[in-house]
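Quick review question:
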């Protein structure tokens, strides 16, 4: 039970920080603002984070919380490729509406130069569990091709999403990430269509 409470407390701090980063900007958000918004204490904040900069690495935590929410609410009868489209739309709409371009850019660039663990590639993340779950179900029902492994398909899908995010950052966020992805992702996913749909 204490571990769950620790996760919830840390999650409250992360959620509060990213809400404030979006609303008032990273530079104008102080540790005191985050403590107030998360309804925690200074001691609690510094128990989990060395400072504000340490929160930049938690964007993937925010993404995983979104995936956890989707995992719990997603209709299992939904076609697997439609479920992957839905997953993509929900994440990218969240980025459009609550993640500052500058901070997403920092996260992605930090993953390029880090020598340690690249948390965006961590196969234990909720994200990859959800992808595997959808792909396995899709293969069992013939909605997704079976001549590729679950890992190959989930890796390709994750690579596709990262490519879209990198391009959006490189373009300075000049278009809606969710709308642009909604027009391209169905074409990308069509390459994974299974025998049930005529392949």
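Suggested answer, residue by residue:
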């Amino acid at each position: 039970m204490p571990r769950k409470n620790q996760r919830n407390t840390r999650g409250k701090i992360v959620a509060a920080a990213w809400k404030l980063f979006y609303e008032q900007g990273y530079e104008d958000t102080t540790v005191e603002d985050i403590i107030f918004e998360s309804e925690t204490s200074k001691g609690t904040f510094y128990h989990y984070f060395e400072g504000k900069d340490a929160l930049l690495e938690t964007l993937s935590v925010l993404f995983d919380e979104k995936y956890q929410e989707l995992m719990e609410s997603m209709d299992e009868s939904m076609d697997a490729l439609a479920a992957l489209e839905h997953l993509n739309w929900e994440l990218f709409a969240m980025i459009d509406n609550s993640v500052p371009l500058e901070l997403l850019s920092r996260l992605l660039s930090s993953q390029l130069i880090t020598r340690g663990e690249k948390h965006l590639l961590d196969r234990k993340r909720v994200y990859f569990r959800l992808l595997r779950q959808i792909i396995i179900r899709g293969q069992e029902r013939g909605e997704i091709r079976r001549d590729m492994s679950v890992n190959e398909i989930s890796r390709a899908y994750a690579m596709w999403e990262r490519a879209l995010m990198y391009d959006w950052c490189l373009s300075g966020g000049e278009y809606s990430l969710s709308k642009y992805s909604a027009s391209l992702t169905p074409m990308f996913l069509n390459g994974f269509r299974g025998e049930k749909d005529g392949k």
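Why it works: The chain has a mean pLDDT of 85. The radius of gyration is 18 Å.
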